Amino acid sequence: MVEILLDLLLALALILTAAAALLSQDLFRxxxxxxxxxxxxxxxxVRLQAPDIALAEAAxxxxxxxxxxxxxxxxxxxxxxxxxxVEEERG
Length: 91
Known about the structure:
This protein is mainly α and 91 residues long. The protein has helices spanning 2-23, 27-47, 51-77, 82-90.
């Protein structure tokens, strides 16, 4: 009974974090929620007794992708988006 309750809570948390990441207007908040989604997905893989996939999900899905997305947002917020890169190449 406790395992079923844990699985239901995990499924609900996945649905809520996915919706929050998709519907967020703030890019930083969406990325942070996306990272949380990846970590919850890793916990789901552990519950499904697939620790190798869980490790890959945590490392790639939450870790590497999250860091790259945060770096991309920081570049755009500093004004180094695609428009400024194009202007530098023309100049």
